[in-house]
Amino acid sequence: MNGVPETEDQQRMRFQVELEFVQCLANPNYLNFLAQRGYFKDSTFINYLKYLLYWKEPEYAKYLKYPMCLYFLDLLQYEHFRREVVNSQCTKFIDDQQILLWQHYTRRRTRLLQNAAEQQAQHNPQQNNGVAQPKVL
């Protein structure tokens, strides 16, 4: 910038803008959009992507709703990936794989939660729907 420190409002706005942009990177179709418009050939933009790697630090990553964006942010550091993502077929493949991962994760997570609930019910038969039942003497 011009050497003048940012105000608190400016810092908050920059944080929000960068958070939103980094999360957009989780969308392969958006990556394709950026690639087709030549952003990935611009050295200033590439430097900006390097700068955004700070989002991988835990104190910032905790604000992300779409952690997959960090994986794509890593991939965007490589010229080969930036060249390939301009191809719509490549982007479609990435999008399909991402959906399959989410479906697998959701099914697996649901199964793990069901198993945990069943085990808890077996170990705590006195509880009914999370409400403790009085002991019968």
Give a structural overview:
With 137 residues, the chain is an all-alpha fold. Helix content is 65%, strand content 3%. The protein contains seven helices and two strands, in the order H-H-H-H-H-H-H-E-E. A two-stranded antiparallel sheet has the order 1-2.
String of helices and strands: HHHHHHHEE
Averaged pLDDT, please? 86
Strand element count: 2
Strand content: under 5%
Report the span from N to C terminus. 75 Å
Query: What would you call the structural class?
Result: mainly alpha
Compute the CA-based radius of gyration: 22 Å
Helix content: 55-70%
Name the shape in a single word.
flat
Total number of helices = 7
Strand order of the largest sheet: 1-2
Biggest sheet features: 2 strands, antiparallel
Uncertain regions spanning at least 5 consecutive residues? none
Descriptive labels:
137 residues; mainly alpha; two-stranded antiparallel ribbon
Sequence-ordered SSE layout with sheet pairings:
Blueprint: H1 8-24, H2 28-36, H3 43-51, H4 58-61, H5 68-75, H6 79-84, H7 88-123, E1 127-128, E2 131-132
Antiparallel strand pairs: 1-2
Helix pairs in contact: 2-7
Entry summary:
It contains seven helices and two strands. With 137 residues, the chain is an all-alpha fold.
